[in-house]
Amino acid sequence: MHYDLVMHKQGDSNMPESLHGKGVISGVAMGKTMLVGQNLDGFLADYKAGTIEEEKQKVEDAVVAVVEILQESAETLKGKGMEEQGAIMEAHSLLAQDPMFSGAMVDKVDEVQKAPAAVLAAASDTANIFEMMDDAYMQERAADIRDIGKRIAKYILGVKEPELGDDPVVLCGYEVEPSVIANIPTEKIAGVILGQGSTTCHAVIIAKARAIPTVVGLGHAVEAIEEKADVIMDGDTGVILIDATDDIREQYTAKLKVQKEQEARYAALKDLPAVTTDGVRVQLMANIGLPEDAKAAAAYGNEGVGLFRSEFVFMGREDIPTEDDQFEYYKAAIEACNGNLCVIRTMDIGGDKPLAYLDIPHEENPFLGYRAVRISLHRRDLFMPQLKAILRAGVYGKAGIMVPMVISCDEVKQVRALLKEAMMELDMEGKDYSRDVQVGIMVETPAAAVMTPMISKYVDFFSIGTNDLVQYTLAVDRVNHNVSYLYNHFNPAVLKMIQITIESANKAGIWAGMCGEMASDPYAAVLLTAMGINELSMSAPSIPKVKDKLRKISAADAKRYLATVMTMEDGDEIREYLHKVVDSRVAAADAKAAAEAEE
Ligand code: PEP
Ligand code: MG
After folding, report:
1. Which residue owns the Cα nearest ligand 1 atom 9?
2. Structure confidence at residue 5 (pLDDT)
């Protein structure tokens, strides 16, 4: 979805150029743009080839030049203490020099006649061979081969590689390859501006885990933004300003200052527990889409991972990931939790997350259709490798398996039976695995919520998925803007579902958590603590915000607010009430702390 396709100059020429997208990751960023994710199609179409011999020579020269650039960049990065990034560049330079690979690039010219096309085609052929290998490490090299091919082709085409300077940049492009964001150190990225509108693409998920202000959905208007343009972007409002006036710059500089002060306050909370003033403890965990997010989450003081959306392991590729493939992902995430629990959700495909290679026929109501656990229970070929991969990865720390979209006890019993079979298969194969992986469900359907007193017999935990629970309880499509005014996690019907779930867990002696977006709302966190929730899982940058509120509130007060809230009839009224009472409590706590600091 594009929010404003036209870049418009506002009235007089002193006004900055402005664009409007959708702010998806909060915060202001100011800096120079760095264009990323260039599509090579246009350059390839304009390319004028010489003779076959000349084209072959171009390939050879480009390989030598790119190897040199890569080696230089490896040394520079290492010199700046960026060991990991330096090692990647070094590995790329070795791959580019491989005689088989460079020979294949030169030979391909006979077939396709143009040097850049030959390089890309040879890289793709070589990457395919790597992908077919049994060894997970070798398979992962396929992406590197494609990256190197693109680099050499860009060199021949004269497309410049963006270079990082000392100041952080605002990455800008229609879309950005996740590896590009992943390989730039967080402190070098001030913000991200994307043309595409997805809020759940990998690049956005990586940016979210690192709290990088991000605006998406500018459409092709983003292509009008130039390299090194002076830009101000606001991840809260979606506003992008180019060449802003001094007055406007001043306003945003002030906003940035407040932002930095708050970040410093939050950073001081990192190693402190989320505990109310009267000692009620809640565990704050991170939601992740990729193992790297778990590493990045540590900066916010997460106590493990409460939701690893494993479908990201299945997305962005052309075939089903093997058991070994998946094992590597889960192991990396579990290890990044340093002994804390890592809850891996089994694949939640369907609904708003289709997967082309599964060939699921078009559905009228995909959110009510063939999705999540329904697919898993029908497709043993998909589910068994996933269960086995999680069990094997469990050896490297503390793992949990969480089943999405459950509506009945029967589904849980079927999953348990398959888990037993998975263990038997692993025994027969002589593979090492963990026997004490926790098993839980997402409570994200009203059916599951009302059945929690019974389902609790079969599970070790419940995690409430409010993103879906709100949509199913209120019959409000979570991605339909026309009905978004009805989508409210404080709706009393939703609160009732949540209360039933937490009470069932408390009674059964199992833990109850929440991994839907509601968990990152600090006012909701106060209410949930009063209900007896044990864990809240959210995108890591929200952790300090929630912790800050909980540490300034007493559970006794929270229980009083809860009693009042549960007599109210309207979600908006509940939100307003909570903001008022919690804010006034927090203001009192802040005033007391300031007075004590002065003494
Ligand atoms: C949820 O439904 O609350 C949830 C966490 O899952 P997802 O947003 O991936 O559907
Ligand atoms: Mg869900």
Report:
1. 309
2. 32
The rounded distance, in Å, linking the Cα atoms of 539 and 519 is 9
Q: Is the pLDDT of residue 8 over 50?
A: no
Beta strands in 310-397 (DSSP E): 341-345
Task: Compute, in angstroms, the gap from residue 276 CA to the centroid of ligand 1.
Answer: 27
Question: Please, which residues bridge with residue 339 across strands?
Answer: none
CA distance 207 to 191: 9
Say whether 202 is catalytic.
Answer: yes
Tally of CB atoms within 10 A around 430: 6
d(CA 485, CA 483) in angstroms, rounded, equals 5
CATH of domain 17-35+164-265: 3.50.30.10
- The span from the CA of 289 to the CA of 206, in Å, is 8
How far apart CA 446 and CA 355 sit, in angstroms, is: 26
Domain map of the chain by residue range? Answer: 17-35+164-265, 41-157, 269-595
What digits encode the pLDDT tens for the residues 443-501?
999 999 999 999 999 999 999 999 999 999 999 988 776 888 899 999 999 999 999 99
The model's pTM: 0.72
Let me know if 8 is a catalytic residue: no
Return the residue whose CA atom lies nearest to atom 1 of ligand 1: 465
Token output for 21? 């997208």
Strands 283-288 and 535-538, by their bridges, are parallel
Q: Within 13 A of 22's CA, how many CA atoms are on the CB side?
A: 14
| Fold: same for 17-35+164-265 and 269-595 | no
From the candidate CATH numbers 2.60.40.60, 2.102.10.10, 3.40.190.290, 1.10.274.10, the one assigned to the domain spanning 41-157: 1.10.274.10
Nearest ligand for residue 489 CA: 1
CATH number of 269-595: 3.20.20.60
pLDDT digits (tens, 9 = 90+) for 131-143: 777 655 566 677 6
Report which bound ligand comes closest to the CA of 352: 1
**Token pair for residue 520?**
């990152």
Nearby residues of 410 by Cβ (< 8 Å), 6 or more positions away: none
Taking the centre of ligand 1 as the mean of its atom positions, its distance from the CA of residue 243, in whole angstroms, is 39
